[in-house]
Each structure stands twice: as C-alpha cells, then as structure tokens.
Amino acid sequence: MHRGKGMKFVGDSRIPADRKSNIPKDYSEYPGKTEAFWPNFLLKEWMVGSVFLVGYLILTVAHPSPLERQADPTDTGYIPLPDWYFLFLYQLLKYEFASGPFNVIGAIVIPGLAFGALLLAPFMDKGPERRAFKRPLPTAFMLLALASMIYLTWESVVNHDWEAAKAQGEIREEAQFDTEAEGYKIYSQASCIGCHGNAFEGGLGPSLATTDKTAEEIADIAVYGQGTMAAGLWEGTDEELQELAKFIDELSP
C-alpha cells in the first residue's frame, strides 16, 4: 500500500483550532513603497517639524501677542473678550435663550450636547464606508457644527465694539503723585475713584493723569458734569473742590 493511501482525517473537538487574527501583510510585500524608519522617515518628520517651528517663531516675532493694561478690580466697566477660538461660545451666551436665567443652557447644556455628539459619532456610524456622501448622519452633524461655529464667530466679530475694547485695554501712562497729599485723600474719599481709577488711569471715565484741563475747568466739570458724567456728583466743600482740582492739574505722567 502506498504511503498515505486509505488515510482519513478526523476532527477532535477537544483540540482548539489555531485561529489567527487579521494580521496585515509584511512591509516586504510592498516593494518600492516602504522606507526605513531611521534615518529616512524620521529625518523627513524632523525637517517638516522644523519648517513649521521656524515659521511659527517668525510669526510670533512679527506679530507679538497684544498686551493690555494691568487688571484693575475697581474698573467694573471692563468687558473681557475670549480668544478667537472661543468667540462662538461667547456669542452664544449673548442670546436670550442661553443667557440670564437660562445661562446653564448656554454654558453647559448646548456645548455638552454638541461635544457629546462629536464623541459619540464613531459609535453612531460603524459602517466601513469612508466617503462623506455615503455617511449622511455624521456628515450632517459635522457640517451643522462647522456652520454654527463659523456663524457665531462671525456674529461675535461683527457686533463687538473693537474701538471701545481697544480703549478699555489700552496701556496708559501712570501719574506720579503723593498718596499722602491732601488732594489725593479728598479724591479717594469722593466718588471720583470709582470711575477714574485709584491711580487716575481711567475706567468708566477718562484718564485724569494726562488731562489737558485747567484747575478751573476740572472744578466746573466736577460740579456741572460733562458728557457721560452727570452733574451734582460732587458732595464736598468748595475748599476741598479747589484742592482736588489743583492736585489733578499738577499730575504729571
């Protein structure tokens, strides 16, 4: 009898089958399409990274970050503005349905639903298709999110008073003065400090450190008001008013 003739193969359920997972092909099976990680691939990565790093450094030198004056807790009129990538959330909080008593909706609920949908997108669409028009659900979500962010950012930029914001954050010259002087004591006890700052740098009102007004004009404005400053705010005596006006007139930046 020849070798192997009449042999039968039977399966034994007690012996586990040797099943291999989906192992990708070896790189050697793709001739001309592979390269060594060191130094070829890594050198290319370093070169690309260096180009972007140098470009970023040049950009930061050519356009340095804008600086504003030091934070002043007494200036209640200052309106902070977030960076450009948060402007869409900043604009969202301006709408009636997301502000005031509904602030939780605008600050937590709506952003939470949006980012939650983004995190759940891979689980909602498990199909192997990668073309966008054949994945209507995730594509629609991404287009809606992108359109909303662009629209809200645009609305925030268009409706913001950039001139007022620039004046609010402008670095102002500080005045040299004696905090023990009688004029400063009168100033700090009056209502002036709430609008003009504790160093005369301005806030809700203009800066007094660089004013071109004379002592007489300053005294008249304190009594009769000017522009947005209402009349009748001064409650001191005439002698204190003259001392205050003289003190402000002698301020030098």
TrEMBL record:
Gene3D superfamilies, A to Z: Cytochrome Bc1 Complex, Chain C (1.20.810.10), Cytochrome c-like domain (1.10.760.10)
Location of the Cytochrome b/b6 C-terminal region profile domain: 27-154
Major localisation: membrane
Electron transport found in the keyword field: yes
Record's keyword terms, sorted: Electron transport, Heme, Iron, Membrane, Metal-binding, Transmembrane, Transmembrane helix, Transport
Stored Pfam families: Cytochrom_B_C, Cytochrome_CBB3
Record domain Cytochrome c: where: 178-252
Complexes and interactors: The main subunits of the menaquinol:cytochrome c complex are a Rieske-type iron-sulfur protein (QcrA), a cytochrome b (QcrB) and a cytochrome c (QcrC).
Biological role: Component of the menaquinol:cytochrome c reductase complex.
UniProt-recorded name of the protein: Menaquinol:cytochrome c reductase cytochrome c subunit
Species in which this protein is naturally found: Paenisporosarcina antarctica
